[in-house]
Amino acid sequence: HLLLSVLPRYIAMELKTEIVKRLSAKCSAEENRPNFHSLYVRQHKDVSILYADIVGFTHLSSTCTPEELVAVLNKLFGRFDDIAKKNGCLRIKILGDCYYCVSGLPDPISLHARNCVQMGLDMCTAI
């Protein structure tokens, strides 16, 4: 579950398969050395990325305790994750008060741009 909390499912499954393969392979000592040079990179055409920054976050952070701020962001980003699923988007990163998601990954979606626009509109409504 740890991998799934930080990576998209398809990448986590590739990593899991590769780790199991390496652990079960009967290799020489040289081949058995940990090798972290594998890259799980693919080219994707026709995707859209949404980057959302919360306006007024700096002011909000100065008026709340750290605990209150984390609770507010956790609740808000949880809502954003639900909205992302509804709109065919995948969260790829949260950094401070910034939320990044993509549509068109891991499977192509012809309406990727519409999905991200609708995601943004729904995020505004959620706030």
TrEMBL record:
<keyword id="KW-0812">Transmembrane</keyword>
<dbReference type="GO" id="GO:0005524">
    <property type="term" value="F:ATP binding"/>
</dbReference>
<keyword id="KW-1133">Transmembrane helix</keyword>
<dbReference type="Pfam" id="PF00211">
    <property type="entry name" value="Guanylate_cyc"/>
</dbReference>
<keyword id="KW-0067">ATP-binding</keyword>
<keyword id="KW-0460">Magnesium</keyword>
<keyword id="KW-0547">Nucleotide-binding</keyword>
<dbReference type="InterPro" id="IPR029787">
    <property type="entry name" value="Nucleotide_cyclase"/>
</dbReference>
<dbReference type="GO" id="GO:0016020">
    <property type="term" value="C:membrane"/>
</dbReference>
<protein>
    <recommendedName>
        <fullName>adenylate cyclase</fullName>
        <ecNumber>4.6.1.1</ecNumber>
    </recommendedName>
</protein>
<keyword id="KW-0479">Metal-binding</keyword>
<dbReference type="InterPro" id="IPR001054">
    <property type="entry name" value="A/G_cyclase"/>
</dbReference>
<dbReference type="GO" id="GO:0046872">
    <property type="term" value="F:metal ion binding"/>
</dbReference>
<keyword id="KW-0472">Membrane</keyword>
<keyword id="KW-0456">Lyase</keyword>
<dbReference type="GO" id="GO:0004016">
    <property type="term" value="F:adenylate cyclase activity"/>
</dbReference>
<feature type="domain" description="Guanylate cyclase">
    <location>
        <begin position="48"/>
        <end position="127"/>
    </location>
</feature>
